[in-house]
Each structure stands twice: as structure tokens, then as C-alpha cells.
Amino acid sequence: xxxxDKVVIETVEEFLVHALELEEASQEQYEELADSMxxxxxxxxxxxxxxxxGYSHLHAEEVxxxxxxxxxxxLAPWDFKxxxxxxxxxxxxxxxxxxxxxxxxxxxARFNExxxxxxYLQVAAGTSSPEVRKLALEMAEEEGWHVQMLEEWRAELxxxxxxxxxxxxxxxx
Length: 173
Prior knowledge:
Layout: H1 12-39, H2 43-67, H3 102-126, H4 130-156
Helix pairs in contact: 1-2, 2-3, 3-4
């Protein structure tokens, strides 16, 4: 890993703020996608995104427990130390489509979990704090389990037929 790939976070409090934002942003986006899929009657994918939002909520609660009630610092959005515009597990909305299949939804979720795992590995590589490194490696391992879980879910899917758009957008030709 090069120096450019390292993320320097030196305090547990700053690490926990990043971890909490990562999970809360993930939950919020999965809920938005679930609502959108519900509106478009893509109910299986809506349910999948709600399930993923629930996991993100549980992980955010775990981070809050790690914080043990201590007051965490507040960071402005531009002060977070990830390289993408949003949190690593935030969904690139260009990847979302109201006719997406469960398989495609799992691909998007897997991509985000990989980005979350890689963020934690970058923190572990860039910190001089043994405590931050330990927490970051634990979180990276957990994100790795999520990647594996999503891969297993995708492998269990039966072949899907693309959804038919019963009310396509009206575009003049």
C-alpha cells in the first residue's frame, strides 16, 4: 500500500466518527433506494435494500456502543478522510435503476462493502495509534464478512428475468 493509499486518523474518537458516518450514510441510502424501488413496484429489490439498511443500522449501533457514550467530535462533510465524495459505503446513484434485479442490487451492495473494507484497511495502514489500528482491522474484517455474505446471497439466486417496464418514460422521438 502506497502512502497515497493511507488514511491518517490518529484518535479513536476521530475513527469512531468516521465509522459512524459510514454506517449512517449507508443506512440512509439503502432506505432511499428501498423507498424508490417500492414506489416503482420492484418489491423484491425494495425488501433487499430494507434488509441491508437494517444491517447498516445495527452496525451504527455497534459503533455507538464502542463510543461508550463519549462525546465524539463533529466533522464537516469536507473534513472526512475518504477519497470519494460521500462515505465509502454510499451508493453511486448512477448504478441504481428502478428496474434493477436482486442480482444487480447485490453487486452494488458488494461494491460498497469492498469500499468500506478498503477504507478501514487504509486507516489501519496510515495510523500510528495501535488502538485505532486494532479497531480499523476489526472493522475491515467485519466488512470482509459482509462482502462474503453478499457473494453467497448472489450465488444462491436463481436466474432472474429482467423486469419489464410497464410504464416507460414518454420520450419524444
